[in-house]
Specification:
By secondary structure, this protein is α+β, with helices and mostly antiparallel strands. The chain is 40% helix and 27% strand. The strands form six sheets. It has a six-stranded antiparallel sheet, with helices on both faces. A five-stranded antiparallel sheet has the order 3-1-7-6-5, sandwiched between helices. A five-stranded antiparallel sheet has the order 13-12-16-15-14. It is elongated, with a radius of gyration of 39 Å. The chain starts with 16 loop residues before the first helix and ends with a helix.
Length: 727
């Protein structure tokens, strides 16, 4: 093309609207396609990242459980060795022989050794010490961590002894955490972990240690039912250091912490990986609770920027720019074609498609004849370029769907439009192999000719990751089914709510009735008193304030009865806009627990009523400071003081010092003894004058604090005795 023979400054020729219409339309389509492709690439990357992070978290949990299971297997071996060596009569020599037969530190890194704990009744304590000294431990003694009464759980053997000598003879029943874990193991028959604690010889790792205990039982007695265990006479155990147990699991691309959340106390963090202080990425954090040998651990993991980099994700902006570049080239080609340079521009477009397009691309006319292909497409399908040009696009599809595709293509030609990713098809290579692709379409007007541009992405790897994720969820669901809980799923895209087989049975439905309908159908089954709380939970999820929830409520079963249910749920997937797309969770039947709580409340109310209405004064004081904690109505009348003025104060706030000294002395005495202290006579000043009282005091223990005190009027012995028995 040449310009008119006139100065450029006076050149006023403007291309006609017809000449520019087609190229501008192509550019508009290119801009839309680039935006669609950018959104598609962003969504694809988010899916890849979420799936990779979910797989990483699942692998982390699996490694954690594998490590713990290896130590349990070691204890089973030790228990078998004790049985083979004579059971209760096994000696320290047999213990040493078992330990020396294994390379313990190499097989079980993080274990500080292995030993045996024996139950020693109080009346057998001296005989047990004498036996141990006869076996070569001349200075053997039973050591308590704190004073306590009752049976002793004494570390009888431990190897290697040189490193664990401080632990030999330790009575673990003298410390609550160790004692509780041992009792739980004896009752359940299973390996059990203590709460995080400081091992005797490892003070530099405060609360980073555990004791792993496995009960050892006496032989089955002939009169017992088949398979019933005898009484546990001890435990094999191993002290563990969690930092060494988890050595090698840490990775630079992610970090995690472990905390014990078994009790109502604040979580006790006992492990932080090396990269815990690295900056985490939004929405790449996960917190799960794990049942680990009688304890509940909370695993909190998060990924960092290095995690993203190692995935080698493509840049959506670059891809969208390349898509737009393709359309710019197509628009230029169309503009040149309408000016008489069609062949030259076609050559340019054909040459540039292979380098510019980020994915496999072809151009076809309304009849479905392929007019252009790039190198990525020929490589993907195994054809030479000459084999595809002039062929129908159906050559790239399996034979069983070609006829249907012809009909779909005709329908598209009647209303052509840009269509982004999300259309999944099966494609066929030259060698006959079939594979899945994601297809994007866009119309293109070149002169009087309408064309269609198609881009194809091989999604084989993506579908494999999605299938792996579904398999992981299936295993999770199977594990929960085995525990008796019911799994539920809510697909917000279809609105369907589905229960697992166990979940359906929980409410009286058969497996065929597990698909209960929509969320509205589920709401209809809820107690009217609980629906508003359900709506609040879902509202927070939809506002992205929460990712998981826990709620107790009542559900109407198939037979019309109501059942209390504890439901745990979490957001399993969000769409590209961040909206909730799928939720999953677990139903647990808590009807029996709720019934027990109601009975406990009724019993407590009855006891409170009795104490409040007896005619004799009843009071409680805190053991640590002897301040009043409770007064009944009779106490108010006797002292002439409202209980609000009494509570939180002591005897010196109301009585003469001599009387207060007497009361306090008796309080201290009753704290040092067991049983009831009877005080036949004691004088007290009241608004009605000096009174002589007959008082009984006793210590009440609640596991953490000691409270004591009952005081009744002289001459009411029969009523007093009834109160003591009732309380």
């Amino acid at each position: 093309m040449s310009l008119p023979d006139q100065p450029i400054s006076s050149f006023k020729h403007i291309p006609s609207a017809r000449l520019l219409g087609g190229p501008l339309l192509v550019l508009a389509i290119g801009l839309i396609s680039a935006l669609v492709w950018w959104n598609h690439a962003e969504s694809r990357n988010r899916v890849i990242v979420r799936q990779a992070f979910a797989a990483q978290t699942a692998d982390l949990q699996e490694q954690l459980f594998d490590r713990i299971d290896s130590y349990v297997r070691g204890l089973h071996g030790m228990r078998g060795a004790i049985a083979a060596a004579g059971g209760e009569t096994a000696s320290r020599v047999s213990m040493q022989a078992f330990y020396q037969s294994r390379d313990w530190e190499k097989e079980y890194p993080g274990s500080r050794g292995i030993g045996f704990i024996r139950r020693v009744p109080p009346d057998r304590q001296q005989a047990f010490i004498a036996r141990m000294r006869r076996e070569g431990l001349a200075d053997f003694a039973i050591n308590d961590l704190s004073p306590h009464q009752g049976e002793h759980f004494v570390i009888q053997f431990i190897e290697p002894l040189e490193r664990n000598r401080k632990a030999l003879g330790l009575d673990i029943a003298s410390e609550e955490q160790r004692r509780t874990a041992a009792q739980l193991a004896a009752q359940s028959g299973a390996a059990t972990l203590t709460a995080p604690l400081t091992l005797l010889h490892t003070t530099e790792n405060s609360l980073h240690g555990f004791l792993l205990l496995l009960p050892v039982y006496r032989e089955y007695h002939s009169g017992r039912a088949a398979g019933e265990k005898g009484e546990a006479y001890g435990w094999v155990f191993s002290p563990l250091l969690i930092d060494e147990v988890l050595a090698g699991i840490d990775r630079e691309s992610y970090a995690f912490t472990l905390a014990d959340v078994s009790s109502a106390q604040p979580p006790s963090v006992f492990f932080e990986s090396a990269w815990s202080n690295s900056s985490s990425l939004d929405r790449l954090e996960k917190r799960v609770e794990l049942d680990v040998l009688g304890r509940t651990w909370e695993l909190d993991s998060h990924a960092n920027e290095y995690f993203i980099r190692q995935l080698n994700l493509s840049d959506p902006a670059r891809e969208a720019g390349l898509v737009l570049l393709v359309f710019v080239l197509l628009a230029g080609w169309l503009f040149a074609y309408r000016q008489g340079a069609q062949r030259k521009l076609q050559h340019m477009v054909s040459a540039q498609l292979g380098d510019a397009a980020p994915e496999a691309m072809l151009v076809a006319d309304e009849a479905g004849v392929i007019t252009h292909v790039n190198q990525r497409l020929t490589s993907m399908f195994g054809y030479a370029q000459q084999e595809l040009l002039g062929s129908k696009v159906e050559i790239l599809l399996p034979e069983n769907i070609r006829q249907r595709h012809v009909a779909d293509r005709s329908h598209y030609n009647r209303s052509p439009r840009a269509m982004g990713g999300g259309r999944y098809l099966e494609a066929r290579r030259k060698d006959g192999s079939v594979f899945p692709v994601e297809v994007s379409l866009g119309p293109l007007q070149v002169g009087d000719k309408r064309l269609t541009i198609a881009m194809a992405v091989d999604i084989t790897a993506r579908l494999q990751m999605e299938n792996a994720l579904r398999d992981s969820e299936a295993r999770w669901s199977f594990a929960l089914e085995g525990s008796g809980d019911g799994v539920w799923e809510w697909d917000l895209q279809t609105g369907a709510v589905t229960l697992s087989k166990a979940g359906a049975a929980m409410f009286g439905y058969t497996a065929e009735e597990a698909a209960i309908g929509t969320i509205a159908d589920w709401y209809a089954r809820l107690s009217s008193q609980d629906r508003e709380r359900w709506e609040d939970v879902l509202r927070n999820l939809f506002k992205r304030q929460d990712e998981k929830f826990l709620i107790e409520y009542r559900v109407r079963c198939k037979d019309g009865s109501e059942k209390w249910v504890l439901t745990r749920g979490m957001v399993a997937a969000r769409n590209a806009d961040g909206k909730v797309a799928r939720m999953i969770g677990v139903h647990t039947d808590i009807s029996e627990r709720k019934s027990a709580e109601e009975k406990l409340r009724a019993t407590s109310a009855l006891l409170d009523s009795i104490i409040e209405n007896v005619p004799n004064m009843v009071f409680l004081k805190r053991a640590e400071d002897l301040r009043f904690e409770f007064f009944n109505r009779a106490g108010e009348r006797l002292l002439g003081v409202k209980r609000e003025a009494l509570l939180g104060r002591n005897d010196y706030d109301f009585f003469p010092r001599e009387q207060a000294d007497f009361f306090t002395t008796k309080d201290r005495e009753v704290l040092r003894q067991e049983g009831v202290m009877d005080i036949p006579e004691e004088s007290i000043d009241t608004p009605q004058g000096s009174r002589m009282l007959h008082t009984q005091k006793l210590t009440i223990r609640d596991g953490r604090r000691r409270r004591r005190g009952r005081r009744v009027g002289l001459g009411h012995r029969e009523r007093r005795d009834a109160i003591v028995r009732a309380l």
